[in-house]
Amino acid sequence: MSWWLSRRAIDHVVLERGEIAHTWRTERWDSLRLLTPNWQSRLPGYQYSGDDPDGYRTLAEVIAFISGYAKVAAAPVRTHTTVTSVRGSDAGYLVHTDQGDWRCRAVVLASGACNIADVPAFAGCVPPAVMQITAQDYRNPDQLADGGVLVVGASSSGTQIAYEVHRSGRPVTLSVGEHIRAPRMYRGKDLEWWMDAAGVLDDRYDEIEDIARARRVPSLQLAGTPDRSTLDLNALTKIGVKLVGRVAGISAAGKAQFSGSLRNMCALSDLKMARLLDRIDDWARNAGLDDVVGPPYRLPPTRVEPAPPLDMNLASGEIKTIIWATGFRPDYSWLDVPVFDRKGRIRHDGGVVASPGMYLMGSQFMRRRKSALIDGAGDDARDLSGHLASYLDGRMAGENAAAKIESHWA
Ligand SMILES: Cc1cc2nc3c(=O)[nH]c(=O)nc-3n(C[C@H](O)[C@H](O)[C@H](O)COP(=O)(O)OP(=O)(O)OC[C@H]3O[C@@H](n4cnc5c(N)ncnc54)[C@H](O)[C@@H]3O)c2cc1C
Questions:
Q1: Is the C-beta atom of 89 inside 6 A of ligand 1?
Q2: 85 CA distance to ligand 1 middle (Å)
Q3: Which of 14, 32, 197, 237 is deepest in the core (most CB within 10 A)?
Q4: The CATH homologous superfamily of the domain defined by 2-115+330-408
Q5: How far is the CA of 115 from the centre of ligand 1 (A)?
Q6: What residue owns the CA closest to ligand 1's atom 26?
Q7: Are 263 and 233 in contact (CB under 8 A)?
């Protein structure tokens, strides 16, 4: 957004509570690699130029990449400046920070979509002897006690963490709710390449049938590994990870109940994957690629044992740690502007927030399917900075007209 605001000659400042790339420095596990290939993190005026475009960035590489971009974009970043409140004012907005106040005509909310780990309330019933940690605080298996681990959530974070913890020698049970299975490679190319080329990632928010639902869909079950292998539930059960259904509740006595829908959840996920691959195959056929890439195929169905357990006594000592990989939500506790719906989500139309001169960035399926990916920021920022520029022009015209009338009557 800063790059686009500079291009449009709009005076601005970027306020950051920590260092540049703060979330990557402080809220990710050590072994994380991006699940998007190197070529795909395209930012305005900044592309991957190394010799491994199909590789997946390590955490250190992501931090270097974002920090490098801040320099290239010459973004006017004020680090160690935490925004504590944003309020409406006559001139636009009054922004309080722990380093002083700012007045501005427009505000872009780019504070991230994943500030708070979403942990169900019944986590409070977990017996105290069981350690609990979220995907946001998990760094590596050395943090965990020896013994069994229950990983709750089977999207990209949960499956990657389950794999790593299992390899550390701890028995892992993975609780599986809604998830989207995806092959890493398909017909000889990375799935992200297909989704990019076939236009799946460019699907627009105003052309999708049920955008509210699309915004709640969990991340693809993908991992970026050097061997480009698929990390789905079959890969995990093959190495000995045990699957159970979604955690439906935990009793006061510490008994976890698992939903009986595991088989259905997996069948649904297989179906969604097949639909995605159908769309890719249709596109490949129309694009004349059928003779260039390998033929279409489908992965074998997800294997689920005939009668997965429906409960587990968390007080028995079998489970020593629970890792909640149950998703994230944004934190707008500092935003004192009435822009929230009944569920506390920001009301916006493709990132144009329901308050004049306020914009959103980085939110799930905000303008496009890719909006919450690094690769989605550029297109969204171009569109929204255009809207912002028109808004400022309109305001300036209004203010000039008002000033003329005032001076006429003075
Ligand atoms: C586990 C995980 C893995 C991911 N993997 C990928 C991937 O492989 N590829 C991909 O493209 N995307 C991935 N993403 C999504 C990725 O995080 C986003 O694409 C990207 O970080 C969005 O950038 P952002 O600037 O909108 O948000 P963030 O990176 O979250 O940045 C928001 C910034 O705002 C700052 N901030 C927050 N509140 C305040 C405040 N009150 N005052 C001042 N500053 C504040 C934060 O410190 C932070 O630096 C992943 C996300 C997670 C959680």
A1: no
A2: 20
A3: 32
A4: FAD/NAD(P)-binding domain (3.50.50.60)
A5: 8
A6: 362
A7: no
